[in-house]
């Protein structure tokens, strides 16, 4: 695992967007999985800007949405789907056959999980996964206590995720469960990036990098990803003893 510290959120986002861009240039049929949320928001915007300016051919590219909030319809701007559609899929004109999302309204989420796992295998695995990190150390919706051996699954959301998750919505919303790729997917991805910015994430980053790997703080798993990169800004790095770049 490598640690990279950038000056601020913009610098961090630019480098994260460069990672995706370089991958897709070198491997046009790359499979990329992204989290939604505040951490990768600017990365998505910068990626789209660059892909459009440089007229990159994305026709073979596959995009996978990391997770979804069960019961939140795609037209709700707090849903992960809304984030992915508005920030990535629509501006890049990606076609239905090249984008894969969990269905928040599915009547059979277990079957959807199997279908997602199958897609990932058929595509040859995930080349690059970029995740944020929750205030409770979650990655995707792999909440504290999750098994490290899971592929896609439905999970009860932690109280912290339910509370913090309100920030994505215009008004209070009832959140209960998430549907998410598992930590097995994360670990099997050819490259894994954890992104975090801001002082509010400093303690979370300190724990993720310094605690023994444990499923009560799932992000600690990044420590053993051989192609793992923790990309953070200076504020998020402020509780680490030594910064590298
Ligand atoms: C969302 C997701 C979550 C977020 C995490 C951090 O798709 O997978 O794990 O990445 O909660 O959220 P932000 O980036 O909003 O701080």
Q: How is this structure best described in words?
A:
With 245 residues, this protein is α/β, with parallel strands linked by helices. The chain has one domain: Rossmann fold (3-Layer(aba) Sandwich), CATH 3.40.50.1360. Helix content is 33%, strand content 17%. The chain is built from 7 helices and 10 strands. The strands form 2 sheets. A 7-stranded parallel beta sheet has the order 1-10-9-6-2-3-5, sandwiched between helices. Strands 4-8-7 form a 3-stranded antiparallel beta sheet, covered by helices on one side. Helix 1 packs across helix 2. The radius of gyration is 17 Å and the shape is globular. The chain starts with a strand and ends in a 12-residue tail after the last strand. The structure holds fructose -6-phosphate (F6R). The site of fructose -6-phosphate has 14 residues, from helix 2.
